[in-house]
Amino acid sequence: MAARIQIPPRAKRGEIVEIRVLIQHSMETGYRHDDVGRVIKRNVINLFSCRYNGVEVFRADLSSGISANPYLQFYTVAEASGDLEFSWIDDEGQQDSERQSIVVNG
Amino acid sequence: MKRGPARRVLATALAAIGLAASMGLAQERSIPLGELKSGSVFLGEDLRALQNDQFANPGTLWVERGEKLWREVSGKNARSCASCHQDASMRGVAASYPRIDKASGKLLNLESRINQCRTERMGAEPLRYESEELLALTAYVARQSRGVPIAVSIEGAARAHFDAGRASYHKRRGQMNMSCAHCHEANWGKRLLSETISQGHPNAYPAYRMEWQTMGSLERRLRACLSGIRAEMLPYGSPDYLDLELFLAWRAQGLPIETPGVRR
Lengths: 106, 264
Known about the structure:
The complex is a heterodimer of chains A (106) and B (264).
Chain A: E1 3-6, E2 10-12, E3 16-23, E4 45-52, E5 55-61, E6 71-77, E7 82-90, E8 95-105
Chain B: H1 5-24, H2 45-52, H3 59-70, H4 81-84, E1 99-100, E2 107-108, H5 110-122, H6 132-143, H7 158-169, H8 180-184, E3 191-192, E4 195-196, E5 207-209, E6 214-216, H9 218-228, H10 239-251, E7 261-263
Parallel strand pairs in B: 5-7
Antiparallel strand pairs in B: 1-2, 3-4, 5-6
Helix pairs in contact in B: 3-6, 5-6, 7-10
């Protein structure tokens, strides 16, 4: 599961920072049928979470209504330098994660 | 307005010049340069913004994958694309395709050019049409021409392909008995149910289509049009598509490449 994640590399303490995430995933809805009429099993990223220095700051429960290759955008307050860890898992149990650092001044 | 003899002479002279110019330029444009509109003009504000967003444009996922594949060694000769095209930028390359391959004299689009490189120079298997890998590589190469106006050659060996493509474009087909021109030439800008008909230009492909929820090639888009008018869909890589692709590129000359485009 390829993903693109964008956070500002540095921020001032107390600043609201924008976090953008784009994950490559087919987000199979479970409502489609294949060429011979069998239901294609639902397989969506059902959980996405973001931890900032170990503390969860954002969580999303996704389901069938979300488009393929979901794009998420959210905000958090820059409190201390450290890592933002992003993790997600789909219905088939495939999981992935990514880590990015932020430097907080002031 | 009254037309005096002098005016008539002038008109005849202008017509003669126009004829000479069109013979010299081989062919007049079907849509004048000033009226050429990319498909993005017919999109909603949100999709246009998504296409222009360098981060959120979902096509960038394929471009990034293509960049990795570009450096990936494959085949008997243990080469990658980057082994030959070391630091060479591919900027402008996509804008000149489809073009005649000098060695074989065949007309190639970007996809078949990539596969020709793979089989003849890398000793690797060709990538399947519409496979994620081929879409990624094509998107990566075409992305480097973003902003470069399309400029294809229809001279020499390309001429016969161009003529065939133009004939194909104007040929009525399918249960609806329609040609490409019926929508994209005669009725662009008007509504077809909830959608605005575009001029049908190829400058954003491979593109991410909302309907597909994924990336797709120009040929996939052509197949979608054929299916829409209930005509026979030709197999991927068919020479008939190539001729049509050349005609479409010529028809869109001057429009900048937008790959990876976002479309409805």
